[in-house]
Every structure is written in structure tokens, then in C-alpha cells.
Sequence to fold (320 residues):
Amino acid sequence: MRNLLDKKVLFFGGKGGVGKTTCASATALAASRSGKRVLLVSTDPAHSTSDIFEREIGPEPVELLPNLWGLEIDGAIESQRYVANVKEQIQGLFGHHILKEANKQIDLAASMPGAEEMALFDRIGGLIRGEDERFDLIIFDTAPTGHTLRLIRMPELMEAWIRALSRSRQAMRGIEQDDKTDPVMISLSARLEGLREFRARLLSPRVSAFILVLVAERLPIEETARAIEQLNDAGVTIGGLVVNRILPATSPDPFLQSRHAQEVVYLDEIDRRFARHHRVRVPQLPSDVHGVKTLEALSDILIPQGSSPKSQASTGALSR
Fold:
């Protein structure tokens, strides 16, 4: 896991309820303690980072600890911001009557399904492109896997859409190539270039990686397998797996002994099916991860302070 701190962007994903937020937060804490300037970003509509850090976190970066900032992206707020920005950009392009109708159409489009997701993607894209230069590492605590995969595929879909708009604009103006003086074409070209940069950084193994979090149960294992296949198809680098909340093997309780026996079967399956990927096992902690003190305990398990990747592997914290 320590090698992942050399990336610029990390995504934590997985099935809902497996501990993505706590693992992302603990990794962000470890990175900040190592001297990195870290931004922890929640894109999950059910934001939990405020609860974990016991601090109010909003749509702009808030300093939580030395070298660590938090940001909770709200789709509705981002949609309003996005619409206001678009309206500002077209102010000088049309006359009063056309502008009034254009603003109506923009408001209508903003109320349609998918508008908030598009605005969310726009904010994420800006962060990944490095528009805020204060941070060395950005860690995304993402929504459940399916939603995250749609966001990852969004650049390709939007690029096709922008190309179609460009062709329509060229046909309307009776030209065969981009008009370097047309403000609409200039805006579309800038948008396309931004998407290309976003996609290049997202798919660069030097820049980005995706960490999947799961627990040793049937449904999370199957969802992780599907996510790995889809991420591989999309060309996204998988940085590793965090197998969370492993039960103790020494409990005298018959119920826990039975659960542990079933868990051993699933852990063996995880090792077999995901042998190509680095795996970190995290034990079930005696209390909820809530507040910086308990977060530090998880942080030390994921990325022990002062240890090298080699020593982590030798102690069994990291397996492959």
C-alpha cells in the first residue's frame, strides 16, 4: 500500500457497506502523516467523512488535520454551479431574446435525469486534471462500484457527444473544419481537450490507481470480480484489494467460530481468484472507526509508519 502513495490520484471503491470510507480516510491520514498534502474527496451521496473526522465538511476543501483536507461533493450543488457557469459563458454569444430562450433550455436540461451526475463528473475531472495545485495526492471515496464505473466511462461518452456537437455546429455554419474564431467551437474544443487530459491521467498507471474494498462474503467477492473485469476493460490500473473486517480466529464463542470457518473458505477463494493483485487483510476492530484516534489504528494497519513495502510483505500485512 505504501507504494500507492506515490500516485497523484487514488480511488477507493466496492460494494456498499464494506468500509470504503474508513479505508480511504485511513489511507489519506497515513499519506498526510508521511508529508504528502492530501485531499480526501467523498463522491458518495451518503457522505460519511464528516462523521469519521467529527468535523463539518462541505463542497469546498476544509483543512481537517495538518496536510489533510476534506471535500464532500454534492451533486445538486455542483449542478447549480455548472448551470451558472454555462450561463455566464454564453452571455456574449447571443442577443437578448435568444439568450433568454437559451437560459430556459439550460434550466430545462439541468432538471433532466443525469444532470447532477454530469456536474459531479465535471468537478471530479477538474480535480484529477490538477486544477487545484495545493495537493500532492487526491483520494476519492467513491459511491458503490456501479456508479463509479459510469463516471469512469463518462469521458469517452462525453467526447463522442462533443464531437457530434462540433459537427453540427460546422454544418450549421457551412464550414468543413473548426473555426478558430467561433466562440462556441472554441468552448467545445477546450472541453474536448480537458476530457482528453482527464482520460490520459485516469488511465496512466503513474498517476492513478483504483483500490477495491471487500469483506470475505459471497456478494462482495462476486461484485469485486465484476469490478476488476470492468476496470481492466476500461484500462484503469488496479492498485490492490483491501479485505476488510476479518474475524479473530481464537474466539471461544461457537457462533463466531462458525462464522470464522466460513470466512476462511472465502479468504482462500479471494487469494485464489485475485492472486494477480496485491491484497491487504484488515482485522475486525474492537470498536467503530469514528474519530481520529480510531482512524489512526486502521491507518497503521493499512500503511505501518516507518516500514517499507518489503517489510510489510514479510509480516503478512501485504500479500500477493
